[in-house]
Amino acid sequence: MNGRRAAAVGAVATAAAATLTGAALTATAVSFARAVVTPRRHKPDDLEVLQVGPHRVVLSATVDTVVPGRYGVWTDGGRGHFRVGEVLESREERVTRELLGVDAGTPAPGRARWNQYYFAGDPAVALGLPHEDVLVPSDVGALPCWSLPGPVDGGSDTWAVLVHGRGATREEALRAVPVLHALGVPCLVPAYRNDADAPTVKPGLYGLGDTEWRDVEAVARYALDRGARRLLLVGWSMGGAIVLQFVARSPLAEHVTALVLDGPVVDWFDVLDHQARQAGVPVRLGRLGLQLLGHPVGRRLVGVSGPVDLRAMDWVRRAQELQLPVLLLHSDADDYVPSGPSQRLAQARPDLITYVASSTARHTKEWNVDPQGWESAVREFVTSRLEAGA
């Protein structure tokens, strides 16, 4: 083989290798982006119940079971449920916690699943509060929704819409119901598109708030048609991104009096950079995946039905567009949605945002670690809004 031919062969080999490398990198970016927008419906057991006593239970030590606060544990494939509180003893492989109550089944040694919401079941089962199961019409079908009325002797004309986060269930919102109910605020707790109990919109992927806000709009319309004059929106994690899109894009936003956001996503780029690092994916490839979500052709590789505009959901950049009072609760120990963007947003708009920081709670578990403090902050904030609109 002469030198010219060898050089040509080498160039072809180099080009082929570059193509293969580029394809592999793109595949990694696509895989990362697809994981971000894919609902995780199957949640396997993630711990062991080792021993059960009259007032205590011994669990396998995991990143969840050793943290402070109050939580729940599902057993027997979700048919059983009990609640745990204070950590009484912690060793390398096991942790003993206070047993606060049994809601269903009989606790026994075996496989189980952690419940970060603490409560399990609908409002009547979990809280002993009367509610109605309603179906809210929307452009994607009927959305299941728990409707909790105000007091019989007349409640507030401000209704709350409680929006859970990515991959969560409506049970996540139950932690906010007692304090709002005590204030006389009727509550609506809806499912939204592509939840396990809600309509599936092909291809069954999340819009990260870019599409789900329309479901909140449908619930808001339902409330206004039934006597609500003002709306209080409460969102956890991606639920925060959803309600922020609602107030930015819906004509019904004029009826919103305030927002309560717990561990919210206010900058998807920051969140997904963090999650890329946790997953061992180079941040530049994670960013490529995010660019694919918004690209007319690239989004087809990921599988989303329409481009997802993450820049429109960057509220640190859009801070000056906020027009509503916000109670923002976020823990510096949040391992899923870092608190940095929330801090920067609060610093940019101290005129509107009441920021409540904490230091030990993991993602959206501020209530679990300090329920009295969380409820006190919500009570004071919501009371001020009710009085302002009286």
Structure description:
- This protein has helices at residues 3-37, 123-127, 177-182, 213-225, 238-249, 268-279, 283-294, 298-302, 340-348, 366-369, 371-388, and strands at 47-52, 56-60, 71-75, 80-90, 94-104, 110-115, 132-138, 141-148, 158-163, 187-190, 230-236, 256-262, 326-331, 353-358.
- By secondary structure, the protein is of the alpha/beta class.
- β13 (326-331), α9 and β14 (353-358) form a beta-alpha-beta unit.
- The protein is globular.
- The strands form 2 sheets. The chain has an 8-stranded mixed sheet with strand order 7-8-10-9-11-12-13-14, sandwiched between helices. Strands 1-2-5-4-3-6 form a 6-stranded antiparallel beta barrel.
- It has 2 domains: 47-115; 123-267 and 314-388, Rossmann fold (3-Layer(aba) Sandwich).
- It is built from 11 helices and 14 strands.
